[in-house]
Amino acid sequence: MRDDLFSGPEPDPARDAGHQDAPERVGFFTDTSVCIGCKACEVACKEWNAIPEDGMSLTGMSYDNTGGLGASTWRHVAFVEQPVPAGRTELPVVEPDTRAEGEAADSGMRWLMSSDVCKHCTHAACLDVCPTGSLFRTEFGTVVVQEDICNGCGVCVPACPYGVIEQRPTDGRAFKCTLCYDRLGAGQEPACAKACPTESIQFGPLDELRERAALRVDQLHEAGVTEARLYGHAPDNGVGGDGAFFLLLDEPEVYGLPPDPVVTTRDLGAMWRHAGLAALSLAAGAALSFALPALTRTKGPR
Amino acid sequence: MGVHNLLGRWPAYRQLTGTDPLGRGRAAMSSATEELRPRTATADRVVKSVCPYCAVGCGQQVYVKDDRVVQIEGDPDSPVSRGRLCPKGSATLQLTTGSARRHQVLYRRPYGTDWEPLDLETAMDMVADRVVETRRRTWEWEHDGLRTARTMGIASLGGATLDNEENYLIKKLFTGLGIVQVENQARVCHSSTVAGLGTSFGRGGATTFMQDLQHADCIVIQGSNFAEAHPVGFQWVMEAKARGARIIHVDPRFTRTSALSDLFVPIRAGSDIAFLGGIINHVLTEEKDFREYVLNYTNAATLVGDEFQDTEDLDGIFSGLDEERHHYDTETWQYRGTEVQAPSGDVDELYARRNGDTESAEDHERIHEAAESETHGSGGAQTEALPPRDETLRDPRCVYQILKRHYARYTPEMVEKICGIGREAFQEVCDALTSNSGPDRTSAFAYAVGWTQHSTGSQCIRAASVLQLLLGNIGRPGGGIQALRGHASIQGSSDIPTLFNLLPGYLPMPHAHAHENLDAFIRATRTDKGFWGNMRAYFVSLLKSYYGDAATAGNDFCFDHLPRLTGSHGTYETVMAQLDGACKGYFLMGENPAVGSANARLQRLGMSRLEWLVVRDFSLIESATWWQDGPETETGEMKTEDVGTEVFFFPAAAHTEKSGSFTNTNRWLQWHHAAVEPEGDARSDLWFMYHLGRRIKERLAASTDPMDRAVQDLTWDYPVDGPLEEPVAASVLAEINGHGPDGAPLSAYTELKDDGSTRCGCWIYCGVYADGVNQAARRKPHTEQDWVASEWAWAWPANRRILYNRASAAPDGTPWSDRKAYVWWDDAEKRWTGHDVPDFVPDRPPGHVPEPGATGPDALRGNDPFIMQADGKGWLYAPAGLEDGPMPTHYEPQDSPFTNALYPSRSRSPVRQLHPRKGNRYHPSGDEPGAGVYPYIVTTHRLTEHFTAGGMSRWSPYLSELQPEFFCEISPQLAAERGLEHGGWATIVTARNAVEARVMVTGRITPLTVHGRTVHQIGLPFHWGPNGISTGDAANELVAIALDPNALIQEDKALTADIRPGRRPRGPALPELVAEYRRRAGITETTGTQEAT
């Protein structure tokens, strides 16, 4: 078993999964610098996929009443209210003399918004651990749950390094973003990307998105937005590159994203090798324990 | 099936024999996965439609399978939206097909405790009977001795969510019945827009279209939460930003719009005119105005009569104020030696003078209360002679110098004191605007109800108009003022008005005058110069559309059939009439005043005094159920079994179930096609109005009573279609467009005649059915045309996309610059040409000087870009048309923590309109005793996830879960001051009512320093009410009825309140708490009413 099936760069996961005539791998590039936090993606996703309503409570987390991705939330917009880092252009102007007492001198707001989604990892642990074959790699290189196969065992849930996939309590089965697999088959784009008013969510061939994202980062850096950085784009990251990656304006943790996720099955090959070695050693030891006395007996004094 | 095939269905076999030995892809696919096809691909048909929520007007595609709507998503062809939809638009499938919609007529008998089902036909007959009976009982031939021919016993509200064709039938039928109290959401949302933009430029619609914002070099968004309220329209701001434009947001709250702007400037709610006045002062004192534009295209050089006195001369008031009647006589505001009629304004002011009448003071007062500032909202003003000018702009009586003096004290220091905006930020805005305006650059303004909903709302918009004229940004690409409207057809319901003071095309509703005939009416309201000179042609063509062959030259084209106004009959006046028992029947058509109108409690109390109420909506909104489980039944103020109001609930058809046109905020008429038939009893409003009118006409057909003559003469012969007998909407559009004597559709309003040979239901829409083709249904993809997209839908007037675009060229007809070329004079062809339809006489050369004595359009000079204006110029100074002054002046809101820093003895507008009565008490303000009881400023606002009063969002699970509860936004400092906890509850109290809201403590709300002291602001989204799946108190419980005198719009963007921790009391303890506050503040019936009507 080759190690690169579980980690490291894998240029063509669809073909590796047996899709001989696979089209180009597609994915999402979410440019959070133009996200207006409208949540059109959340609603468009729910309408298309007929996902049930997911709780009606005010969370108190800014304008985020969704909370996070789950079985009934496949797109989630995070809202982060924070003081403005020095040197930013998007500064609200608050004059020193209008500040309330005790307020920090650099006080000013910025409001980060980011639409999160399943990353459709190159190395998808959820898929690798799925015992039923419900989770599979599509010809588009995406990762999809087949609801007619899923038996609700839940093994995929702890396998996901991003905490994306989840079981629906009323149903038991696991659900997550399909990157609108049905729409892709008909040459249509995913519902969220189609709705997005500002093209914060961009859909397309992954290679093209990566190029576009690199250009956008350069553009933002030139404009003085030095905090712009990409997240999940690199093919050599812990999951072999995300099929859905992001342009962020702060550290990933700020958005609730793991800073350096690693596919939980990365060491599967090594583990099997070590286990095999251990088994061999045990077997050899056992053999030795029988063989050695016998040898001793033959060589010993009569 | 062979063995091989059977085996092939076994994944393990495929895994072992195929290309996927690990079984992670191809081999794992189930047969269901193999056969998966999207419902967008399997649909039987795809129907082109338009989003029914806000006025951006995004294109939609409705997918239908087996005669059921299975999916709704964006139309990629649309130049407005490019296939995108916001969360509300994305939830349209749930809105139209969800379980929250009602499909059965419900009836609540007087004093009944519950709904009863009722047969649709029976219900229609009952409503027709109620209308006929109530009308007869309340008929009024005369009022104070003047002929009125009307009923004040019936009123209607709603229309902005409906189609133009539906609004047309509502206005036509009700006007035919003599009902004058016809109103819609435009009154409470954007009526002041019509007054503000109309008097400044000649037409009351946005001067530009959203897509053109991409060409702006600077965009100032003020009085608008663009990104949240119009998310898909905001893509054009983002386009501009991507091209390097500077985006500035000025707002009391840091919103999702601020988050994407380059500069956010927090401002104290209610101080916008001071801020804009400061920029005007900066431009004038630094001489940063675009001088050639200003000299040629505005009235800067025009001399004003010597009698005019400014607020700076009279300590806060203009000349002409009648202190007793709180009314300005505008005679002294006129140009020197000339009398101009307003393009949009108090056009009836001139009735007496022009007809040689000497009217009583009472007549005069009645007229001035009638929101006349909106009439001619699409048209121009009047001058009888060329007013004198000083081209050097040095004459102290020229508009430029008067303006300069008026704003001289609006210094950065004054802005800081009044608005709480620091000098540095102020300077930054001034620099951004002035450096991005001129021949080579343009700046745009975008605003919404943050400007309109003030007691000085019209003047907020005027202030921006003055500034944009000075900077030379009107009529040019990347420039203009975008009025962002909030309902799918709120522009249309102003153009084809379900508004009491207007007839279609901003023609004025006639007032009651002695011996009034058509000639006298036209003489008083037309202008001598410009396109309002043809007023008679527009008016007679409308009367011919209404009354058909019955309208003849011999009977003044049935002019006397029109009911007459005797003052203000706006929606808030109607509520007063309901409370007083004068208004007995009420139609609510897609509007929810029990939540969405100011002083929601009074709205409900008013409805409880009605004899009958008709509610047409998707679900049982609060305005339908207040008698059963409303807030007053909880407090004990209302007992269900004591309420005598008979209530009819009719389920409404959705936009997918009817054809018709919406007019979006671009002034574009976009046709949506019916995709399916409505289910159950649900019907379109077109169906409802048509069949109601048919029934009423049948009942009155044999009547010999003269009061029924107008109904008998009303043309009402629309073809019907299908099993439901749905009127053919296109036939109504064809009537709106009009036709000539041969019955052929007209193609332009210039073809209208004043002799009765042409018919036209709305002259500014003439051309929408040119050549017998529904031009509103045109859908040439944006990818196949330029950004003007002139072959997508149809814009009024004459398919022009940027208004006043003659001003995009220099006086000599050449573009101001290559970068900003838009419309120019082609000297070879001797015609105006360019990217858009020229908003000018097409073959009039730039240097044209009219013959002496020319009138109407012939009197326009080659450099008069504002073709509806009486002098052809943009009005920096409005010599007529506005009730509260020729130039915007800062006054404090009705309820304010501050006195007016500019005029301490004139804190508030001397002519604001108040309705002091029980339940609508005002607060002490400024340094008045008791003002400290309500120390904080409240401003109401929208959220992306909800829609207006919630009728189209609080019943949607997908939208409600995103914003599930009513909350208040407060700063950490206010939280500390009042002991409020994030996530906890707060009670907000005014003299009107108290509401409870969850507390959101956020740095996005900044305390400001105003008048040297800290002031806290509270943000309240106004979407909630007690019904639906997301419930909460309505912010409008808190708001007083205090109105702009021009447009009768309420002030809910700046008021005062107290906030305290914890939930509000239940039962009778709630009104007791509110009363206790009033006692503490020493509030009486006169509090806050000084210097007011």
Structural summary, described in words:
The complex is a heterodimer of chains A (302) and B (1093). Chain A has two domains: 3-266, Alpha-Beta Plaits, CATH 3.30.70; 267-302. In chain A, the strands form four sheets. In chain A, strands 9-1-11-10 form a four-stranded mixed sheet. A two-stranded antiparallel ribbon of chain A has the order 2-4. Chain A is of the alpha+beta class and 302 residues long. In chain A, strand 5 and strand 6 (143-145) form a beta hairpin. Chain A has helices spanning 13-16, 40-49, 125-129, 156-159, 181-185, 191-195, 206-222, 268-299; strands spanning 26-31, 75-83, 91-92, 109-117, 135-137, 143-145, 166-167, 174-175, 201-205, 229-231, 244-248. The longest helix of chain A has 32 residues, at 268-299. Residues 86-107 of chain A have low confidence and may be disordered. With 1093 residues, chain B is an alpha/beta fold. Chain B has five domains: 3-34, no CATH class; 44-97, Single Sheet (N-terminal domain of TfIIb), CATH 2.20.25.90; 106-189 and 493-658 and 667-765, Rossmann fold; 191-484 and 850-860 and 870-887, Dimethylsulfoxide Reductase, domain 2 (3-Layer(aba) Sandwich), CATH 3.40.228.10; 913-1081, Beta Barrel (Barwin-like endoglucanases). Chain B contains 36 helices and 39 strands. In chain B, helix 7 crosses helix 31 (685-700), helix 8 (164-177) runs parallel beside helix 31 and helix 14 packs across helix 20 (423-435). The chains are: A alpha+beta (302), B alpha/beta (1093). At the A-B interface, helix 2, strand 3, strand 4, strand 5 and helix 5 of A face strand 3, helix 5, helix 13, strand 11 and helix 20 of B. Strand 3 (91-92) of chain A pairs parallel with strand 11 of chain B.
